[in-house]
Amino acid sequence: MQLLAVACLSLAAKMEETEVPLVFDLQVCESKFVFEARTLQRMELLVLSTLSWRMQAITPFSFIDYFLYKLNDDKTPLRSSVLGSIQLISSTIKGIDFLEFKPSEIAAAVAIYVAVETTTVDSEKAMSVLTQHVKKERVMKCVEVINDMSLVGGSIKVGSNATVPSVPQSPIGVLDAACFSYKSDDTRVGSFANSSSQTHTSPSRSTKRRKLNRPCEVEL
């Protein structure tokens, strides 16, 4: 297991770093065994063959630049389009409905959505430009999911005021961001429930409010 861990760490360093650490520098944390470079190389080849040499994760970000470029008449896309696309793609991570789509289909749907919102491109024209790369039916379905997401979660800024969400600097930051998002959702639901209860004039208004604010009990 230690050899496998060191091999994976070495492969990750080779994929991300411009200066790869020495083999012995990867084994400084009280390692029980110290492996030679030749032994480590054999394990790296075993890992690569198991993964079929697919070391780079394919995401919608792998396609979005090209799609925006094509929708902008083969010109550099607008900054607002790029920022809006980043925000939309980041938002799709929160929805399980996007798991059925390929990264290229999500990227095409996002590019079409952003192009229609920020430029004068017609949706049908934008769709015709990208249909040679992706299936039209799948992209149309993904666009519908994005529209539903924007209606449920509020309007998505894709104009000149769009901003790139800050990236957490650590795993703890990721957890904090998720916790903050969860609390924000609870706040929105609670405020919606309170506003709904205030619109009714029935005598049991306070009782209903207490029921809405009471935490749900789930029997396991």
UniProtKB/TrEMBL annotation:
InterPro entries in the cross-refs: Cyclin, Cyclin-like_sf, Cyclin_C-dom, Cyclin_N
Biased composition regions of type Low complexity, renumbered to the chain: 195-205
Segments passing through the bilayer: none
Keyword Protein transport among UniProt keywords: no
Key words of the record: Cell cycle, Cell division, Cyclin
Keyword Cell cycle: yes
Domain Cyclin C-terminal: 58-183
GO biological process: cell division
Superkingdom, natural source: Eukaryota
Annotated segments matching region Disordered: 191-220
Family classification: Belongs to the cyclin family. Cyclin D subfamily.
Protein name per the record: Cyclin C-terminal domain-containing protein
